[in-house]
């Protein structure tokens, strides 16, 4: 029986821990903000002060004592204005009964005030020293109390948090200008195949352009890794053995494509056996069955199948979780949706299938439709794909309306 996807994932991730963290400044992290996968925080962040650091107004208006303006429910109340203040300035005060301070949003609340009346609920003659309050407010209204967002001493960020834009904002608010983060794993991309030429070259007879290296390198970058494309290796055992060893010397993870099936020129598995460990190969998945997993010189190694769609599907299922785990992401999976098929699904297989699909809306409900022909060499089946429909082994054909699970590739 072929190994299940989950068992293979478990065996690939088993015992994998991230390398020691490194320290990065907020500005350095900003440089990386454009990356699809941000850095991951390697230690909790505890607030060293309250945020906001002082009670302040959430509206442009008048800081008052709520008790003074309770009567405005019946008739307008007039207060003496003792000053005016904006964000970044200290207010006059303390507020005596019957007085108000004009405040702008973000201005510190004067001592003695417990509420703010928005300017829209007041009337003030230009140049006048009084304001007329037209509506009452409750104590606390339009006031942001000190520590409302983050409390001094509280653990605001847990280790394992993605440094997404709001998180950088939180770190900046707390004055955490350097953060411990996990390194980005360096991933060597090794293509195998006598037929491969660089994309800039004109392929000769029987040759094709090396597309896997570029697709896989982009997928590595999207998963937070640093890809390095190595020159393609010919289909000979000594070349592949030497090439994989070379790759392992300069990278944290080695990913290859091609040469893992049962052909006479498929040398990745024997090379792995010579170099170190071939832990298992073949998984119950279509595309992607002949995946080979092991270690080269103690570096995790994933030998992906050569067919371009198989290479990217196995990247999604097996390489991506490994790269994320190496960056300190413990449990990660794509959001999964249950949606009805929008059309009959003819594809059947004894293996579990991952089919490229879209999820258009029909009559207000999302449905699952395939992107087109699903062969493992049909790269255009990725175009417009929003998800992978996860079809159990042996299922089908399935009729339109049957619910299926989709891994959402957002
Ligand atoms: N008798 C059997 N034959 C095959 C089986 C099987 O079970 N029995 N499995 C098939 C399946 S499924 C897959 S997937 C492929 C896997 O093949 P390999 O990993 O050995 O890859 P290659 O044979 O080297 O190449 C397959 C295919 O992919 C093209 N290729 C390879 N590298 C690249 C690249 N970098 N860029 C673009 N295209 C690439 C290559 O030219 C071949 O067409 O095996 C089946 N066979
Ligand atoms: O597993 Mo292959 O990847 O079906 O094409
Ligand atoms: Mg082959």
UniProtKB/TrEMBL annotation:
CDD domains: MoeA (cd00887). It holds the Pfam family MoeA_N. Residues 188-325 form the MoaB/Mog domain. GO terms for biological process: Mo-molybdopterin cofactor biosynthetic process. It catalyses: adenylyl-molybdopterin + molybdate = Mo-molybdopterin + AMP + H(+). It comes from the Bacteria. One of its GO terms (cellular component) is cytosol. The keyword rRNA-binding does not apply. Pathway: Cofactor biosynthesis; molybdopterin biosynthesis. GO terms for molecular function: metal ion binding; molybdopterin molybdotransferase activity. Keywords: Magnesium, Metal-binding, Molybdenum, Molybdenum cofactor biosynthesis, Transferase. InterPro entries: MoaB/Mog-like_dom_sf, MoaB/Mog_dom, MoCF_biosynth_CS, MoeA-like, MoeA_C_domain_IV, MoeA_C_domain_IV_sf, MoeA_linker/N, MoeA_linker/N_sf. Its EC number is 2.10.1.1. The keyword Flavoprotein does not apply. SMART domains: MoCF_biosynth. Its cofactor is Mg(2+). Catalyzes the insertion of molybdate into adenylated molybdopterin with the concomitant release of AMP. May be involved in the biosynthesis of molybdopterin. Belongs to the MoeA family. This is Molybdopterin molybdenumtransferase.
């Amino acid at each position: 029986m072929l190994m299940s996807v989950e068992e293979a994932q478990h065996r690939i991730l088993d015992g994998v821990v991230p390398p020691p963290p490194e320290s990065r400044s907020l500005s350095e992290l900003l440089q990386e903000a454009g990356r699809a996968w941000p850095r991951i925080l390697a230690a909790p962040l505890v607030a060293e002060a309250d945020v906001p650091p002082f009670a302040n107004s959430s509206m442009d208006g008048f800081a008052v004592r709520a008790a003074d303006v309770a009567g405005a429910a019946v008739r307008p109340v007039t207060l003496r204005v003792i000053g005016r203040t904006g964000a970044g300035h200290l207010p006059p005060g303390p507020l005596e009964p019957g007085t108000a301070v004009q405040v702008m949003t973000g201005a510190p609340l004067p001592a003695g005030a417990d509420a703010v009346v928005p300017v829209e609920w007041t009337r003030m003659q230009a140049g006048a020293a009084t304001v007329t309050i037209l509506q009452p407010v409750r104590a606390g209204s339009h006031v942001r109390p000190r520590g409302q967002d983050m409390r001094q001493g509280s653990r605001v960020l847990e280790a394992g948090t993605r440094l997404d834009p709001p998180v950088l904002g939180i770190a900046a608010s707390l004055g955490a200008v350097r953060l411990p983060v996990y390194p980005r794993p360096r991933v060597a991309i090794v293509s195998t195949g006598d037929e491969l030429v660089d994309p800039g070259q004109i392929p000769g007879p029987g040759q094709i352009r090396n597309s896997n290296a570029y697709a896989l390198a982009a997928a590595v970058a999207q998963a937070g890794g640093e890809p390095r494309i190595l020159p393609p290796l010919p289909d000979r055992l000594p070349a592949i053995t030497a090439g994989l060893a070379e790759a392992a010397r300069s990278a944290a993870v080695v990913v290859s494509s091609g040469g893992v099936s049962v052909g006479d020129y498929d040398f990745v598995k024997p090379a792995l056996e010579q170099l170190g460990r071939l832990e298992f190969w073949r998984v119950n998945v279509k595309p992607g069955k002949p995946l080979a997993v092991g270690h080269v010189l103690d570096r995790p190694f994933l030998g992906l199948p050569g067919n371009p769609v198989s290479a990217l599907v196995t990247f999604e299922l097996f390489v991506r979780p490994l790269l994320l785990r190496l960056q300190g992401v413990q449990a990660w999976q794509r959001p999964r949706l249950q949606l009805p098929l929008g059309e009959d699904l003819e594809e059947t297989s004894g293996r579990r299938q991952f089919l490229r699909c879209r999820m258009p809306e029909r009559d207000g409900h999302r449905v699952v439709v395939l992107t087109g022909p699903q062969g493992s060499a049909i790269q255009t089946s990725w175009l417009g794909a929003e998800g992978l429909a996860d079809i159990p082994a042996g299922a089908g054909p399935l009729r339109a309306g049957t619910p299926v699970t989709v891994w959402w590739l957002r």
